[in-house]
Automatic annotation (TrEMBL):
<keyword id="KW-0067">ATP-binding</keyword>
<comment type="similarity">
    <text>Belongs to the tRNA(Ile)-lysidine synthase family.</text>
</comment>
<keyword id="KW-0436">Ligase</keyword>
<keyword id="KW-0963">Cytoplasm</keyword>
<dbReference type="GO" id="GO:0005737">
    <property type="term" value="C:cytoplasm"/>
</dbReference>
<feature type="domain" description="tRNA(Ile)-lysidine synthase substrate-binding">
    <location>
        <begin position="242"/>
        <end position="309"/>
    </location>
</feature>
<dbReference type="InterPro" id="IPR012795">
    <property type="entry name" value="tRNA_Ile_lys_synt_N"/>
</dbReference>
<keyword id="KW-1133">Transmembrane helix</keyword>
<dbReference type="GO" id="GO:0006400">
    <property type="term" value="P:tRNA modification"/>
</dbReference>
<dbReference type="GO" id="GO:0005524">
    <property type="term" value="F:ATP binding"/>
</dbReference>
<dbReference type="InterPro" id="IPR012094">
    <property type="entry name" value="tRNA_Ile_lys_synt"/>
</dbReference>
<feature type="binding site">
    <location>
        <begin position="19"/>
        <end position="24"/>
    </location>
    <ligand>
        <name>ATP</name>
    </ligand>
</feature>
<dbReference type="InterPro" id="IPR015262">
    <property type="entry name" value="tRNA_Ile_lys_synt_subst-bd"/>
</dbReference>
<dbReference type="InterPro" id="IPR011063">
    <property type="entry name" value="TilS/TtcA_N"/>
</dbReference>
<dbReference type="InterPro" id="IPR014729">
    <property type="entry name" value="Rossmann-like_a/b/a_fold"/>
</dbReference>
<keyword id="KW-0812">Transmembrane</keyword>
<feature type="domain" description="tRNA(Ile)-lysidine/2-thiocytidine synthase N-terminal">
    <location>
        <begin position="14"/>
        <end position="189"/>
    </location>
</feature>
Amino acid sequence: MREALAGIPEGALVLAACSGGADSLALAAALAFVAPRMRLRAGLVTVDHQLQEGSAERARLVAAIGGELGLDPAEVLTVTVGTAGGPEAAAREARYAALAEAADRLGAEAVLLGHTRDDQAETVLLGLARGSGPRSLSGMAAESGRYRRPLLHIPRSTTVLACQAQNLRPWHDPHNEDVRYTRVRVRKQVLPVLERELGPGVAEALARTAAMAREDADALDEWAAVAYENCALSDIGGSVTLAVSELEKLPDAVRRRVLRRAAITAGAPSGALSATHVLAVDRLVTVWRGQKAVDLPGGLSAVRRYGTLIVAISPIA
């Protein structure tokens, strides 16, 4: 916790996002202990997703525990979960929107999340199953904007012991046992099989792999940012023009990052832009046979003309 809070200015407010489970409850208790010793203010927010009977009362009890720990403010954030992207994605979107609003309203310098090493291992396995590439395999970042994850290198078992040592009674969310959810199946079925068949330490190895993949992905992204500036002839008004001669000099991994950035800069929604889209644009550079424009999300097209690659709103004149 001390490492996670390092660099936050004295007197700043730090919020713990707490569901009442062992991970986030241990997180909140650690914040309550460390923050005053670092001359920081500490608070707690808990999100009521309104998806289960009695959720409002449970959220109220979590906020009350925050008050007992000395966390102030200790608030309940009530959200309405939509349906887009499935129940897990919709709940996550609603939760993060509520956390961002609370952080802005309260003037919080940081919001702490209770993800553990086990959560990281699950995230890596899900990324492997989707074939999402090294950025997805890098898992969750220890620090991302205002969000920090102090427990990312700690096993879930440690948070359970921490709660027991402090006489804190975590709430066990029944959704965490429901195998209809993909992440629960990974936790309850896939990881135990891997541990049994490959030996103990799989979760730790996956988390270590995530850390190494993140370092590599960060380095490639930095390289691609510089390469984009060298390749871009223009990126004004929703249209990006790149020099093919410069793109051809780049390694595949860097060039495709440049192409993805060009598409997003031109207006393609990042969530809808798939690896298949990027590979199709890449072939305009690497396997040029006079092919037609490539359609991209957001009503865009990519076309090669006179030694340039143009990404713009369709149709490209």
